[in-house]
C-alpha cells in the first residue's frame, strides 16, 4: 500500500481536489461524446418524478421510516442532518436512476466483483454514478474523465496508462481496479467512508483542514461545514444515490462511530440459539469472504449477518473474530490454509489489475 503521507501531499497539491468531476445526466448514450461535468444534478428532462407521484415527497414515507428507524436489512439509520437533502435528491433523481439500474447491470456486476476483491464495499460503485453517470467518455472542464473521473496524476499513480489513443481511465474494468486502490488507501487513512467520499471529491488536504478546523473531530456531520460546499454535498449525494438503489442505508452511508454502533447491533441481533450453536475464531491475514463462503458452503447473507463488514475490517486491521455455525467453522478450520492461499491469490490478481 502506498504511503499515506504521499496521499496527503498529493491531496494538498490538488490532484484529487479536481476529482469533483460530475455528470450532467444519466441516460444511456451509446454514441461516444464528451460532456462537461458541471454538477451531479441531472438534466431537467431526466428528473421528472415517477408516474403517480404528484407530490415529490409522498412516496418517501416507508423509505424514511426505515431510514430513521434502521429497520431495513442493514439496520443503518439516516442521520437527521441529511434527511432534507436526501429527500429532495431522491425526488429529483429517482426516475433516472431506476432506468440506469436496468441498463447498467453489467457494469454494476463487474464493479461488485472488483471492489469485493479489494475489500471495498460494493456499494461504493455508486460513487461512479455521481462522478460520471457511468459514462466511460465523460470528461470534466479540468480534464478528469472516465467512469471514475480520474485526473491524469491520480490515474498514473494508481496504475492507469494515459497514452495517445489509449487512455485507460476510459476502461471500466481497469479504472474500477484503480478506484478501488485509491479508496483502499483513503480508508486506511480515515477509517470512515463518509470522509473517504469527501476526500475523493475534494482531496485529503481539504479533509485534513476541515478536521483541524473542527477541533480534531473526524465526524463528518461535525466538520461538514468546514469542507468545500461541493465536497459536503458530494457526500450527501452519494447517500441519496445509495438509498435510491438499495432502498436503505449501509456501512458506506454512516460515520465511523455510527458504523461501530451498527456492527454491535448486528451482532446483537443473532438469536440465542444461533449464538449457542456457533463458534468464534480469530483469523489473521487477508482472508476473503467470497472464498470462505465457497469453501464452507454458506450463503452470503448468512455469512454477512454473522460477520458484518468482514472484508473491510480484515483489510484495515489484518484480523477479525470470525463467527460461523459450528459445523461450518469446523470446515473452515480444516481448510483455512487453502482458503488463505486462494484469498491471497485473489488479492494479488486484483492488485495487478488482471482477471
Summary tags:
17 helices, 55% helix, Lysozyme, two-stranded antiparallel ribbon, mainly alpha, 4 strands, 355 residues, two-stranded antiparallel sheet
What would you say this structure looks like, in words?
- The chain has 355 residues and is mainly α.
- It has two domains: 256 residues, Lysozyme (Orthogonal Bundle), CATH 1.10.530.10; 83 residues.
- 55% of the residues lie in helices and 5% in strands.
- It contains 17 helices and four strands.
- Strand 1 and strand 2 form a beta hairpin.
- Helix 5 crosses helix 11, helix 8 crosses helix 11 and helix 14 packs across helix 17.
Write down the overall mean pLDDT. 78
CATH fold node name of the largest domain? Lysozyme
- Helix and strand pattern: HHHHHHEEHHHHHHHEHHHEH
Using the alpha-carbon principal axes, give the shape.
globular
How many beta-strand segments? 4
CATH architecture group name of the largest domain: Orthogonal Bundle
Distance between the termini: 20 Å
Total domain modules = 2
Strand content: 5-15%
User: Radius of gyration, Cα only, in angstroms?
Assistant: 20 Å
The main sheet comes to: 2 strands, antiparallel
CATH class descriptor name of the largest domain: Mainly Alpha
Q: What class, by secondary structure content?
A: mainly alpha
Number of helices: 17
Helix proportion: 40-55%
> Largest beta sheet: what is the strand line-up?
1-2
Low-confidence stretches: 1-74
